[in-house]
């Protein structure tokens, strides 16, 4: 009888553990889903960061190589300040359309600011190109004399 009582007590302990683990499994599943979503969001942000860093380096290299060729009297104007990027607010199920609209408006604003920045950069590059063409057309004899010796 002592062995049977011991086995029954052990089985009761196992049932209690399973029932308490079953109550927490919903929480554990939700926590795992939240963790997976956070990891996915973090991966997306890291990818976006790498892409932006590469674009920044490309723009930086093209700017330094362009400015090395042309001597200007005044430094170029500073780039316009872009609006701060804020994370999209979490919205409830009924507020999804409004939240998406806010997010799209914010994204549109960022794109428009970037477009104006790129247009300004394009104007600067066109000006530099025009100056270089004038320099080349103004001194064709000098460049031919330098190439012959």
Fold blueprint:
Layout: H1 2-69, H2 96-138, H3 140-147
Tell me about this structure:
The structure is a single chain. By secondary structure, the protein is mainly α. The protein has a domain at 100-137. Helices cover 80% and strands 0% of the residues. It contains 3 helices and no strands. The relative contact order is 0.05.
Count of separate DSSP helical elements: 3
**In one word, what is the shape?**
elongated
Radius of gyration: 32 Å
Question: For the report, how would you describe the main beta sheet?
Answer: none
Calculate the mean pLDDT score and round it: 76
Succession of helices and strands: HHH
Number of strands: 0
Distance between the termini: 114 Å
Low-confidence stretches: 88-93
Secondary-structure-derived class: mainly alpha
* Percent of residues in beta strands: under 5%
Helical content class: over 70%
Please outline what is shown here:
The protein has three helices and no strands. The protein has 149 residues and is mainly α.
Distinctive features:
KCMF1/Dystrophin; Dystrobrevin beta; mainly alpha; elongated; single chain; calcium; about 150 residues
């Amino acid at each position: 009888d002592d062995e049977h009582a011991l086995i029954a007590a052990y089985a009761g302990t196992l049932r209690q553990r399973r029932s308490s683990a079953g109550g927490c499994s919903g929480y554990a599943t939700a926590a795992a889903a939240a963790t997976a979503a956070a990891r996915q969001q973090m991966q997306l942000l890291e990818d976006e960061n790498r892409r932006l860093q590469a674009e920044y380096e490309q723009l930086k290299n093209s700017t330094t190589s362009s400015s090395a060729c042309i001597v200007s009297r005044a430094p170029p104007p500073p780039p316009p300040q872009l609006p701060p990027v804020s994370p999209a607010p979490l919205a409830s199920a009924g507020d999804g359309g409004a939240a998406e609209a806010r997010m799209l408006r914010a994204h549109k604003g960022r794109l428009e600011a970037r477009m104006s920045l790129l247009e300004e950069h394009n104007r600067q590059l066109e000006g530099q190109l025009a100056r270089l063409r004038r320099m080349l057309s103004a001194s064709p004899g000098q460049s031919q004399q330098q190439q012959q010796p």
